[in-house]
Amino acid sequence: MIELWNALPVLIQILLKITAIILPLLGLVAYYTYAERKVIGYMQVRIGPNRVGWRGLLQPIADAVKLLMKEIVIPTKADKTLFLLAPMIAIAPALAVWAVFPFDEGLVLADINAGLLYVLALSSLGVYGIIIAGWASNSKYALLGAMRSAAQMVAYEIAMGFALVGVLVAAGSLNLGDIVAAQEGNLLTWFWLPLLPLFGVYLISGVAETNRAPFDVAEGESEIVAGFHVEYSGMAFAVFFLAEYANMVLISALTALLFLGGWLSPLPAAWTEGSWLLSDGFHWLLAKTFFFMFLFLWLRATFPRYRYDQIMRLGWKVFIPITIVWILVVALAVVYRLPPWWSA
Amino acid sequence: MAEKLIFYILAVITLWASVMVITRKNPVHSVLFLVLAFVTSAGLWVLLEAEFLGIVLILVYVGAVMVLFLFVVMMLDIDLATIRAGFVQNLPLAGLIAAIMAVEILLIVGPGNFGLDAFPKPEPLGAEVSNTRELGLLLYSVYIYPVEIAAVILLLAIVAAIRLTLRRRPDTKFIDPAQQVRVRKGPDRVRLVKMAAEDVAPVVDKGDAQ
Fold first, then answer.
1. Interface probe, candidates B39, B60, B71, chain A, greatest A C-beta count within 10 A
2. Which residue ranges does UniProt annotate as crossing the membrane (chain B) (predicted)?
3. Which residues in chain A have their CB less than 8 angstroms from residue B56's CB?
4. Exposure winner among A25, A253, A340, B111, fewest CB in 10 A?
């Protein structure tokens, strides 16, 4: 089996690895939409989808087929090339980031030194899909949504970047695998505790970056009908939808990786001897990611939409000062080797 | 071999995109071609093993600066007819200036400055060398004064830009969101009052009402 694998050309090996990452991811995204409808349904004392398949389990597939069959309507005065390019620009960075994402010790497609920087750079490209969609649609609501999201994403990207600077200072490396290795120990040595303010800022900025409730002013279905994707239909719309959910999965997975020790087990090493379930492994990363994915849905079911000027105030006047102060604190703690995190 | 192929593909796209930036009629298209040129230049830097610079180019220019650029350009109401008016009569003078500038550039950075003699091929470094670290060490030791001075100049530019454009307008109905979010339900919005029950409303004889 291994000989067969090694006999394949490198390019084919890489393509197979990419498929092995992307296919489960798209499946996860599809069932995330189902989970959202179910979870929010139960939170609002409804049942949610329950007609297609057992307990509605085939609903995402039915939705996908429906969207595939629908006509893609292109508005008359729209910029046709950019109109069709925008959904692709939205989804490409959301998928490309997974190239440097480590799923377990050494289990990564591209183990690059500047991994964290790569993640930040690619996630900053997602905003182009939204802006181009808003402008190319030639619709006032779409343009308003694009304007709102551009201002919001640029603002929260800075807070998010500063939070990641804190992680980088604490771990002393930009490599995602090394960042997890730096959190080795137990529940209390993971970065969520020494970087608690940055953890909060990162998580909330992540919600804002993905344009999810309560920061969903780019869509604002009750104010500007559906914002940037109001003119989109069929598969073109579905791709935006996929991109949004793929980004949510990504932010959840990154939060688990950077602040909650990734694949590290929360139990002390003495207890986990000889048990794969309790010791470090991919399943811990998955469990932590699922927790944050659930949090996204929980937030949506709980909070009303933020007003635009309050969003800007939170981003610029609250989060950015917090992150700058805490970077200073972390830097001092690292320099003076504050125990128990940086005593070694 | 593969490296060379990737280089030529990226270089051709960079040049093509740069030409498109100055020839497109629609400014939004120009900005997007500029973004493409930045992305492919970042690819060229990564080929030179300067992956830190390449990624930062994407992060800063594509991810932040060009987004704001696009933001402004989309808001502009550009009348192409007025911009293109007088193109023909200005062409001789503009062409002459352009030619002089091109000659000047050629004299300063002519073909003699390039090629393998001027820049011998550097030894490729191993994968374990982190050029982020190398660059950081250089910037904050050898080049500390230039970095600090550049930072102060940028800060000055920010402060100056804000000072020049910030105007207090007394007529806007601006609400301070900081004050608003501090409003609490208890003392500020809802007040619970304990009071005794009032008398039952007196019965009115309906016959008289009219």
1. B71
2. 6-23, 30-48, 54-78, 90-110, 143-166
3. 117, 121
4. B111
Tell me the three state secondary structure of residue A107.
Answer: strand
- Taking 60 as the threshold, does the pLDDT of residue B209 lie above it? no
Which tens digits make up the pLDDT trace of A9-57?
A: 888 888 888 888 889 998 999 899 899 999 999 999 988 888 888 888 8
- Please give the torsion angle defined by the CA atoms of residues A147, A152, A153 and A155, in that order, rounded to the nearest 10 degrees: 130
> Which of A80, A88, A100, A113 to probe by mutation at the B interface, max B CB count within 10 Å?
A113
- The length of chain A is 344
Q: Which residues contact A212 (CB under 8 A, 6 or more apart)?
A: A244, A248, A296, A299, A300
DSSP-assigned letter for residue A149: H
Give the tens place of pLDDT for each residue, A89-124: 888 998 899 988 888 877 888 888 888 888 888 888
Six token digits for residue A9: 């050309």
Q: Which residues contact B27 (CB under 8 A, 6 or more apart)?
A: B73, B76, B78
Q: Quote the DSSP letter at residue A104.
A: B
pLDDT higher than 60, residue A138: yes
Q: Classify A298 as helix, strand or coil.
A: helix
* Token code pair at residue B2: 């593969």
ipTM passes above 0.85 = no
A289: its two tokens:
């990611």
Cis peptide before A214 (omega within 30 of 0): yes
Residue A215: how many other CB atoms lie within 10 Å: 26
CA atoms within 13 A on the CB side of A144: 15
The residue ranges of every structural domain in chain B are 1-78, 131-166
Which among B35, B56, B130 has CB closest to A113?
B130
Cβ contact A203:A195 at 8 Å: no
H-only helix segments in chain A: 2-7, 10-43, 59-69, 80-96, 115-123, 126-136, 140-171, 176-182, 196-209, 234-259, 282-302, 308-313, 320-335
The pTM of the full predicted model, rounded to 2 decimals, is 0.83
pLDDT tens for B184-193 read 777 777 777 8
Q: Which fold has domain B1-78?
A: Four Helix Bundle (Hemerythrin (Met), subunit A) (1.20.120)
A313 interface with B at CB cutoff 8 Å: yes
